[in-house]
Design goal:
The radius of gyration is 22 Å and the shape is globular. The chain has 479 residues and is of the alpha/beta class. Helix 1 packs parallel to helix 10. The protein has 20 helices and 15 strands. The chain folds into two domains: 287 residues, 3-Layer(aba) Sandwich (Rossmann fold); 174 residues, Glycogen Phosphorylase B (Rossmann fold, 3-Layer(aba) Sandwich), CATH 3.40.50. Helix content is 45%, strand content 14%.
């Protein structure tokens, strides 16, 4: 299938609006780059603070406009003294972003053909209705996690959530089997996204999820960052609800396949990260044996207590395996990060600590034999793409669902208990890097890697879905 060719005057203009978070921006920016290569004008909208952070990490010219691709900004509506508060951001997305976005669109020189909004930006659906333009939602989660979010109104209607009180978090209620959701075979309530653990019906995150689920019910075009073979059962369950589903992952490999050498070189300089990466860790990895290093990264938003950090630290150190550990400055809640001297000595001998890193390069390094992860979807699909098995410590949001997929469905990982005990971390790290189960999981992960390569190659399912997506957007501009 070839992309429709149109003259430059009739090129469609798509406005991309990511949720203001690292993994969402990275994923949507890659899709925007792909569609730009398909002859589509792109306006990519970030909050002002995230735009500035991208410039800090990528350099002052990393977001310069280029023919047919421009960056624009809107405020985040958060007072300076509350900036960084995730709940304040959720509130502002629901109350302020629609007005900011419509003001921006009114100033754009090129008429908007279509809006592609993050599934976590429900205001974009209202904006498209106001502007009378088509809209698509891009869910940067797995299809299963998206399907879990979509169920929120149904779970409320069946009085399964919110929980009656906090005792329901520990009394076995979360083990309730949900057998009425198509595509989910005997899933437990606890395996659905984190909103099911809410006890307060006025909780900000809980109501944010409900608004996102309601917005999704208004549209018919869904883009999901997955591929068909990975989640075929759930995707089949989605088909009767959404007439147009585009599974287009993993985007990184699609970019490599679709852009030519000159374009690859040009896009390599573009920033996808809100934090400055520390490439020195790659030099450290270079000196290690194949499959000998455990890579540890809990993503851009997960937080933990100082005690949990120490339990992870001692468990990893006592495994006696080499480790690359990404520790963000804000990883520990309200405390500075201090390791005891004995643990520092082990870290100096066996480990490398950085505040951020080029994760895709790290995961594809031959020395990396396992990934201790929070189960964010961006990290998960990057690990599958690299053929790396995982240890899972899900935090919130979509992560419990993805953990279930990793461990139960795809059999490429093992879960660490929520309370975090150093003995368990040590045992599972040893098993993942050097044990028989780890060996079998590595074989499984390599099988998924091969399937991903097929899906993103010419005539693969994801490759063809990107072609179809681009064609359908071009058709919008001819109507």
């Amino acid at each position: 299938m070839e992309t429709v060719l149109v003259n430059s005057e009739s090129k469609p203009h798509v406005v991309f609006v990511p949720c203001p978070a690292q993994s969402h921006i990275k994923c949507m920016l890659k899709l925007a780059r792909l569609l730009h290569l398909k002859g589509i004008h792109i306006t990519f909208v970030n909050t002002e603070i995230n735009h500035n952070n991208l410039l800090k990490s990528g350099g002052p010219h990393s977001l310069d406009d280029e023919p047919g691709f421009q960056f624009k900004t809107i405020p985040d509506g958060i007072p300076d003294d509350l900036r960084g508060d995730r709940l304040e951001l959720s509130k502002s997305i629901l109350t302020n972003f629609l007005g900011y976005f419509l003001d921006l669109v009114a100033r754009l020189e090129i008429p908007v053909t279509c809006i592609i909004g993050d599934g976590m930006t429900p205001f974009t659906v209202d904006a498209a209705e106001t502007l009378k333009v088509p809209t698509m939602q891009f869910w940067t989660f797995s299809a299963s996690a998206f399907w879990g979010y979509y169920q929120a109104p149904n779970l409320i209607e069946k009085k399964l959530i919110p929980l009656k009180d906090e005792s329901y978090l520990t009394n076995g209620y979360l083990d309730t089997i949900i057998d009425w959701i198509p595509g989910f075979e005997a899933i437990r309530l606890k395996d659905l996204p984190g909103y099911v653990r809410t006890t307060n019906p006025n909780d900000v995150d809980y109501n944010f999820v409900i608004e996102c689920a309601k917005a999704t019910r208004k549209i018919s075009n869904i883009i999901i960052h997955t591929f068909e073979d990975l989640e075929s059962t759930v995707i089949k369950a989605l088909n009767p609800i959404f007439p147009h589903i585009y599974t287009i992952g993993p985007l990184e490999l699609l970019l490599k396949h679709i852009q030519n050498e000159q374009e690859t070189k040009k896009l390599d300089n573009k920033s996808y990260s809100l934090w400055k990466e520390e490439p020195e860790c790659l030099n450290w990895l270079q000196s290690k044996e194949p499959n000998s290093v455990i890579y540890v990264n809990f993503g851009s938003l997960a937080v933990m207590s100082s005690q949990q950090l120490l339990e992870f630290g001692w468990g990893i150190a006592n495994s006696n395996h080499y480790f690359l550990w990404i520790i963000r400055p804000n990883l520990v809640v309200g405390e500075s990060i201090v390791f005891p001297q004995e643990l520092k000595e082990i870290i100096n001998k066996k480990g490398f600590i950085a505040s951020w890193c080029p994760q895709e390069e790290v995961l594809n390094h031959p020395s990396v034999g396992g990934f201790l992860t929070h189960c964010g979807w961006g990290s998960t699909i990057e690990s599958l793409t690299a053929g790396v098995p995982m240890l899972c410590w899900p935090f919130l949001w979509d992560q419990p669902t993805i953990c279930r997929q990793i461990c139960k469905e795809w059999k490429v990982g093992m879960e660490i208990g929520e309370s975090v005990k150093r003995d368990e971390v040590e045992k599972l790290t040893k098993e993942l890097i050097g044990g028989e189960m780890g060996k079998q999981m590595r074989i499984k992960a390599m099988e998924w890697k091969k399937k991903i390569e097929i899906a993103t190659s010419s005539n693969g399912s994801s490759f063809l879905n990107v072609e179809k997506l681009a064609n359908d957007i071009h058709m919008f501009s001819t109507k």
